[in-house]
Amino acid sequence: MTDTSEQEQRRRRLTAWGKSERILSRASAESTVGGQLAALAADAGAVYELSEPADVYGDGVVAELERRVARTLGTEAAAFFPTGTMAQQVALRCWAGRTGNATVALHPLSHPEVHESGAFSVVSGLRTVHPTHAARLPTADEVRDFDEPFGTLMLELPLRDAGFVLPSWEELTAVVESARERDAVVHFDGARLWECASHFGRTLPEIAELADSVYVSFYKSLDAMSGAALAGPASLIAEARTWRHRYGGQVFQQFPAALSAMLGLERELPRLPEYVAHAKEVAAAMADGFRAAGVPWFRVHPAPPHTHQFQVWLPYPAELLTEAAVCQAEQTGVTLFRRWFSDTPPGLAVTEVTVSSAGLAWTADEVRAAVADFVGRLRA
């Protein structure tokens, strides 16, 4: 498929999703440029005084966002970064210097290993090792008994590519303790940390307190335009600011991203427990729908979901599933699934389902009916 055809397909999908009257999640990034600008201009005054001067190199609204993040997570300080890729490289580079060990233990499905083109080793001189290859975070025994030293244990919460999975609170605390027994520091890749509180039954400060440093994203769960934050001890964050400049992250002005992040903290963060609870109902109804439709094999994973996101697996080509999903949206105004992707073993495809505010209106019966319609399109 050429770039042009992919752009056309993306425009088609966005149009179908935008016109859908019923959808499980509606992200602001799927809106138009004008739509996003208008929404930001209309809403930002509710979270920040817009008569204040615009930010310059991280002061003003950006500094205020950093203070709010630190307060929300219960850490001494926080620093805004344009991307999570940069934030985590800086964090782990700082820890490597402090521990004297540039080896990072993490899961092979974690974001830096799968989605960042080897940035840890190529850009930051870090080396990675894997305490486990199972589709879950490592256990305390796997960390404790790993056969070589590492300076930092990095835990992605939740582990997205394994199905947005989380350990239990007891398992997480045991893993952290096992790393500390090895004199390693612990860093949380918390791109989606915001929605983990319900699963753990703990507050965000209680979760963040387990780690030596935490990265959070603003656009994944909080629906901001972009941006991330690194939170932790004041001395670490001060050092991270220096490295942020060296990595090219000292951006002249960032007020649109900062304002949208503030809106996410104010509006989306309090609603995430609602989304997590409803995702469990949606996932169960999807499974009922596939069973009732006589689909030969399917998987809704994990069951029940640990957060407001989960995977669905079906034994059909990804292209066929994506086309059926787009056609359903175009012809019925209902978006049940979005894009599907081929995965191993051959013959299976997977999609990610997110339930947010738009999805709260769906009843279990409506989910089952949408699944029946979707499966009918596959058979047709």
From TrEMBL:
Any one GO BP annotation for this protein: glycine biosynthetic process
GO CC terms of this entry: cytosol
Cofactor: pyridoxal 5'-phosphate
Domain of life from the UniProt record: Bacteria
Keyword set, alphabetical order: Pyridoxal phosphate
Gene Ontology MF terms: L-allo-threonine aldolase activity
Boundaries of every Aromatic amino acid beta-eliminating lyase/threonine aldolase domain copy: 55-287
PANTHER family: L-THREONINE ALDOLASE, L-THREONINE ALDOLASE-RELATED
Protein name stated in the entry: Threonine aldolase
Organism, scientific name: Streptomyces agglomeratus
Lineage, highest ranks first: Bacteria, Bacillati, Actinomycetota, Actinomycetes, Kitasatosporales
